[in-house]
Design a protein that fits this description.
GO biological process, one term: N-acetylglucosamine metabolic process
Structural class: alpha/beta
Distance between the termini: 11 Å
CATH topology: Rossmann fold
Bound molecules: 2-amino-2-deoxy-6-O-phosphono-alpha-D-glucopyranose
EC number: 3.5.99.6
InterPro entries: Glc/Gal-6P_isomerase, GlcN6P_deaminase-like, Glucosamine6P_isomerase, Glucosamine6P_isomerase_CS, NagB/RpiA_transferase-like
Shape: globular
GO molecular function: glucosamine-6-phosphate deaminase activity
Largest sheet: 7 strands, parallel
CATH class: Alpha Beta
Helix content: 25-40%
Keywords: Carbohydrate metabolism, Hydrolase
């Protein structure tokens, strides 16, 4: 595991963008799975400026790794809608470069990525409960590939999904789809990033505690090429271990 600790959210975001750019500038097709959520907002601001208008970066192909099938204004589900707003639209990424995972094609996701040459990098955020993608404690297991997860998978799931769809309980879907732990581990490289004190405890547990399904992200410790990028606040509880 390689740890990079940056002073604050802005410099962490700059480094995250730099790492993605390093992959993008390869002289061949590059496959990236990228995250939505609040952590990447600043990184996408940087990337939009770095990528927009560069025709030579059409070698980069993008994949979303989870989706909540509630269609928003832009015609996408929650995750893709977010990625579209933060990055694809402002950076003018062409449709041929965007490979949508949704409730209709999730059973083909792993095979499709394999046929495309595999993921070069997957960019992950982490929840305070240790989840990444849609792999929450008590939902998927380490051996799962891309699958559908029911709203009844765990007791708190309905509330989480209601929040994800903007707080309206009538819009809560019956399920979501996500790349599973085994799918994520097939990526050649993992970049996981976190910001703020509310992530400090889980960073210690996930990367210095036991590998257990109770903390889904603990599996990522065993990946041969993982970079964990943090700001100082998120790294506060591991400084003595590095
Ligand atoms: C959602 C996403 C996850 C993401 C997590 C953390 O659950 N599906 O992929 O890692 O949020 O989000 P944030 O960056 O807002 O803390």
């Amino acid at each position: 595991m390689k740890f990079i600790i940056e002073k604050d959210y802005a410099s962490m975001s700059r480094v995250a963008a730099n790492i993605l750019l390093g992959e993008m500038y390869r002289d061949r097709r590059v496959n990236l799975a990228i995250t939505a959520g609040s952590t990447p907002v600043k990184m996408y601001e940087y990337l939009v400026e770095d990528v927009k208008g560069k025709d030579y970066l059409t070698n980069v192909h993008y994949y979303n790794f989870d989706e909540i099938p509630v269609i928003g204004e832009n015609g996408y589900g929650v995750t893709m809608g977010n990625l579209d707003k933060l990055y694809f639209s402002p950076a003018a990424i062409s449709a041929e470069q965007i490979h949508v995972l949704d409730e209709n094609n999730y059973l083909q996701q792993d095979e499709r990525i394999k046929d495309d040459g595999g993921l070069d990098l997957i960019l992950l955020g982490i929840g305070a409960d240790g989840h990444y993608c849609g792999n929450l404690p008590g939902t998927t297991k380490f051996e799962n590939m891309t699958s559908q997860v029911s709203v009844d998978a765990t007791p708190g799931m309905r509330d989480i999904l209601i929040e994800e769809v903007g707080g309206d309980a009538s819009k809560c879907p019956d399920y979501y789809v996500t790349m599973g732990p085994a799918s994520v581990m097939q990526s050649k490289r993992i970049l996981l990033f976190a910001t703020g004190a509310k992530k400090a405890a889980i960073i210690r547990q996930a990367f210095f505690g036991p590998v257990t399904n109770d903390v889904p992200s603990s599996l990522l410790q065993t990946h041969p090429n993982i970079t964990i990028l943090l700001d100082e606040a998120a790294a506060a509880e591991i400084q003595d271990l590095l």
